[in-house]
Specification:
Helices cover about 0% and strands about 50% of the residues. By secondary structure, the protein is mainly β.
Length: about 70
Amino acid sequence: KTVRTWDVARNGSKGIEADHAAAVDSVAVSADGKLVATGDADGVLKLRDAATGKPAVEVKAGGAKRSAVQA
């Protein structure tokens, strides 16, 4: 699954491979624009470097449901 972010300065989109097993249902970008957080239907939260798409952190909530991810 791919998450697309929009770069206003460059007027273009960038795809970040979210690599979730379940459907991605939440996305947030940190205030400084350096991290992208994605959450899935299985309760997995992943943080990725916005510039490179490389994984930074993965948290498994054990199936706990969330309604949103906020950076």
